[in-house]
Amino acid sequence: MKTIFILSTFVFLLFTSTAALAEIRYVSKTGTATPPYTSWATASDSIQKCINICNYGDTVIVANGVYREYLLIETEIALLGTSMDSTIIDGTGLGYDYTIQSNADVVISGFTIIGKGFNDSPYYVGVVTISNNLNIYNCKISNCNYAFWVGQSSGVMEGLIITNVYTGITTACAFDTCKPIIKNSVILPRNDMSNRGITISYDGQPVILNNIIIGGYGMIGIYNVSAKRLVIKNNLIAGGYVNIRASNADSAFIINNIIREQSSDFYSHAAIQDPNIRAYIRNNAITDNYKGIHASNAHSNFNIFWNNEVHANNGSIFGDNDLFVDPMFVKDTTAKSFAYDYHLQKYSPAIDAGDTSVFDIDGTRSDIGLFGGPGGSLYTYLNLPPKPPVNFHAVYDSNKIIINWDKFSEADFSHYKIYRSLTNNFIPDSSSYYCKSDSSYFIDELPLIKDKIYYKITSVDSDGNESYPGEQIVITITSTNEPLIEIVGEYKLYQNFPNPFNPVTIIPYRIKERAYVKIMVYDIKGELIEVLVNSVKEAGYYETEFNGQNLASGIYLYRIEVVNNRSIPVYMNMKKMILVK
């Protein structure tokens, strides 16, 4: 209640600066139908009833509860919910196109707002429509075609969680003086064709800052129609067939974003599509896309391109300072998993590699990516162990075993360690260390023994951090001297790290073949706390994160269950970890 009081007082003062008679009014599920609703004791039983008697500049505070209402706002007010999770305006199935419609400037904060639903007229079923300025903060929005349709707005839309919608936010500014700001929000459109995260229609000068926009195959993350000036900074935009379409902007500034996982192989689709020659594309990490930039004469510079099928085409021009290297994210998993961490590791080539005229908030030259530039954040660069070697291949030729694997891509890589043993599933240590290799291949003479030889290989960085081993390679020497070669993945639950931890730790595990995996955390009494993984995984090495922020110090258990595609349990294990606060 204290936070709401402070916010309502702020809004009250904001409006009373021009409206001396402004009131704070109240709504409660146990309220009355008798105005004036100026205390909790005399609160209204309906949000709309309270709005109907409001004067210019009034503030309406709504208690927790579910309000099945359509709201029409005709005068400038502030509408404040007590809790974003528990103060709910539900328009499901009501006979109106929008849950909230305003014909005046309005401030809204602290609600879950549910739309009417979906139909074949996507422009007319939504949550909030307003032709004036909208300032909306800290709200959850869902279940509609359009979450917001905003007209001549220079307001701020901040702290929003928008899910299960066809389009998140549409601004339709007819004047280039409109300057809507969309920031610090999460927009997750439905996985359908022709979806949009943010649509910029007509003119205006929108600023899109520090958002997460993740969608499916049919999404355009940010779709500009004709904004005069478009600023897109410090966003994560991932998963669509176009992540940013910046066409028709007089000028576009695309700076310090992570733009990845563009999914379409259609010629004209790309992570960034059709920015004009005046587009300022700087300090972005453009990774894991089919195509990075598709544009005629667009100039890129100070960006990192990595793991794209095509970095750019159709006349796009790379700058002298563009990089084509692994950015070394802390956890480079798909954005759709929501288990990623796109902070930069220590020794990342993206650190201090951005535009020399742009600075981080600590005053150093800008980092490339989501957390760089003046809109980014300070954090400690972690010096993590490298990833294990992957994709082993082995052949026999002229009495030699030749093993190769994918070349390591991180900037601080030093060498590989080769371990050899006569013991199956051995633990690599000093007793089994065989040699090192600076290259992603290794040649060994076939020993004159009739037995099995086991190899494991790790990666080592320049600070001596060593990875977990990759898959085990088994060489079975036969009487014909034509060895059998087997690359054996194994099921493995590793010890969490760090351990002890406070409050976040990583739990690594390895899967031998495609299987259903479940990882659970228990307290020391065996009570289930959280299910961390509950899905089918392909063969490989994985990490999952556990956050004990809301738990007391103590010993906790984590365990894994693996069931293969024949519905047979093939692996179970459990380990202890220690939370210390």
Notes on the structure:
This protein has 4 domains: 1-131, no CATH class; 151-381; 393-488, Immunoglobulins (Immunoglobulin-like), CATH 2.60.40; 492-579, Immunoglobulin-like, CATH 2.60.40. It is globular. The chain has a 20-stranded parallel sheet that branches. Strands 1-2-5-8-11-13-15-18-21-24-27-30 form a 12-stranded parallel sheet. Helix content is 4%, strand content 45%. It is mainly beta.
Classify the oligomer: single chain
Mean pLDDT: 86
> How many H/I helical runs?
2
Give the beta-strand count. Answer: 49
Any idea what the radius of gyration is?
A: 28 Å
β-strand amount: 35-45%
Helix content: under 10%
Task: Give keywords.
mainly beta; 581 residues; single chain; disordered N terminus; 4 domains
Q: What topology does this entry show?
A:
Elements: H1 2-16, E1 24-32, H2 47-52, E2 59-62, E3 65-67, E4 71-73, E5 77-81, E6 87-90, E7 98-102, E8 106-109, E9 112-117, E10 126-130, E11 134-137, E12 140-150, E13 156-158, E14 161-173, E15 181-183, E16 186-188, E17 195-202, E18 207-209, E19 212-214, E20 219-224, E21 229-233, E22 236-238, E23 242-245, E24 251-255, E25 258-260, E26 272-273, E27 280-282, E28 285-287, E29 291-294, E30 300-301, E31 304-306, E32 310-313, E33 329-331, E34 341-344, E35 393-397, E36 400-404, E37 413-421, E38 433-437, E39 441-445, E40 452-461, E41 472-476, E42 484-488, E43 492-493, E44 504-511, E45 515-523, E46 528-537, E47 540-547, E48 554-564, E49 569-579
Parallel strand pairs: 1-2, 2-5, 3-6, 4-7, 5-8, 6-9, 7-10, 8-11, 9-12, 10-12, 11-13, 12-14, 13-15, 14-16, 14-17, 15-18, 16-19, 17-20, 18-21, 19-22, 20-23, 21-24, 22-25, 23-26, 24-27, 25-28, 26-29, 27-30, 28-31, 29-32
Antiparallel strand pairs: 33-34, 35-36, 36-39, 37-38, 37-40, 40-41, 41-42, 43-44, 44-47, 45-46, 45-48, 48-49
